[in-house]
């Protein structure tokens, strides 16, 4: 199996964590690897954001490298698995695809040039679900063709964190590739999701509570069904308010009162992390607004873990 190397004691899987943020992918691989009885080693990580680098170092001990566009592929160590939740800013890819060079100027290009140079056996990419329809599907098409031209068998699917045990509706596209035609099967839903009650803290400082004015305003605009508490109230772009016994996707750039617990207060940092499936041992450092951005940008850990588990199963089953 090309995914693994025999180390001194245990089999070893080496991986790189690109656009690593606070390390959601790393947590997921580490959790999954334990179940497989092999050692996973992160040999390289990179993120341009100083706040993300600080939190990553606090939790994993490594300081990620910076801007990936400035890092030559030769500087990146050999690895078996490449992980990248690349930024979701809209990007346009034009022209007939002659090769991934046509994606130059996008951060996907940097993923592709590293894949071309290092040829890891397998990869997992993640992005917002809108990638599926961006430029009528053209952008995704170009990405998949580029990956195929590099020799990878590629699968993609939209998965929702709600289906993997978290009370957060977070739909993301996952793209999985392998140099062999492994029998990859997307993971099944593990509903029901955890009740919000288990995520919410009981003692919350008054500083998290929205002003009386904001609370009245939310109540005035609310027209939906009243569920038994707790609920998360969500304001959409048009200003409509809805409430559900789960959270809508946390977003890095959303307004301060975009999500309110019971229409009254903002989520605490710990609650945000729990909504993404991070363990309570995970440490966040920095301001509240930096934490909102970092956690909103991160991944739903059980969802990523399920994808990685399916990938490892498929690699193990593959008989050349
Ligand atoms: C969607 S987030 C990924 C978050 C990550 N998966 C996690 O679990 O936290 C994208 C990340 O790409 C980083 N980024 C953007 N441009 C970059 C660049 N040129 N080089 C390295 N990282 C970059 C951002 O700072 C952000 O943390």
TrEMBL record:
Top-level taxon of origin: Bacteria
GO biological process: DNA restriction-modification system; methylation
The keyword Aminoacyl-tRNA synthetase is annotated on this UniProt entry: no
Keywords tagged on the record: Methyltransferase, Restriction system, S-adenosyl-L-methionine, Transferase
EC id: 2.1.1.37
Coiled-coil intervals, chain numbering: none
Keyword Repeat: no
GO terms for MF: DNA (cytosine-5-)-methyltransferase activity
Enzyme class: transferase
Catalytic residues (UniProt): 88
InterPro entries (alphabetical): C5-MTase, C5_MeTfrase, SAM-dependent_MTases_sf
Family assignment from sequence similarity: Belongs to the class I-like SAM-binding methyltransferase superfamily. C5-methyltransferase family.
Record protein name field: DNA (cytosine-5-)-methyltransferase
Biological source species: Gloeothece citriformis (strain PCC 7424) (Cyanothece sp. (strain PCC 7424))
């Amino acid at each position: 199996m090309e995914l693994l190397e025999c180390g001194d004691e245990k089999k070893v899987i080496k991986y790189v964590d690109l656009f690593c943020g606070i390390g959601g992918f790393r947590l997921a691989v580490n959790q999954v690897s334990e179940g497989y009885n092999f050692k996973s080693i992160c040999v390289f990580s990179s993120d341009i954001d100083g706040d993300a680098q600080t939190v990553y170092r606090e939790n994993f001990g490594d300081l990620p490298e910076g801007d990936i566009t400035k890092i030559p592929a030769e500087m990146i160590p050999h690895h078996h698995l490449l992980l990248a939740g690349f930024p979701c800013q809209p990007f346009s890819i034009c022209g007939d695809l002659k090769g991934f060079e046509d994606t130059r100027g996008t951060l996907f290009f940097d993923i592709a040039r590293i894949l071309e140079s290092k040829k890891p056996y397998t990869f997992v990419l993640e992005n917002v679900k809108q990638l599926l329809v961006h430029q009528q599907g053209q952008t995704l098409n170009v990405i998949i063709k580029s990956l195929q031209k590099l020799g990878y068998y590629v699968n993609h699917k939209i998965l929702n964190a709600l289906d993997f045990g978290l009370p957060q509706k977070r739909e993301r596209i996952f793209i999985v590739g392998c140099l062999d035609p492994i029998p990859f099967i997307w993971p099944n839903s593990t509903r029901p999701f955890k009740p919000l009650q288990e995520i919410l803290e009981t003692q919350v400082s008054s500083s998290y509570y929205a002003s009386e004015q904001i609370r009245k305003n939310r109540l005035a605009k609310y027209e939906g069904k009243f569920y038994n508490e707790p609920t998360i109230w969500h304001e959409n772009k048009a200003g409509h308010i809805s409430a559900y016994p789960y959270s809508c996707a946390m977003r890095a750039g959303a307004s301060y009162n975009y999500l309110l617990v019971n229409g009254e207060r903002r989520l605490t940092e710990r609650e945000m992390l729990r909504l993404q499936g991070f363990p309570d041992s995970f440490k966040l450092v920095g301001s509240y607004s930096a934490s909102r951005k970092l956690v909103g940008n991160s991944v739903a850990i059980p969802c990523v873990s399920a994808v990685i588990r399916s990938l490892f199963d498929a690699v193990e089953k593959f008989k050349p």
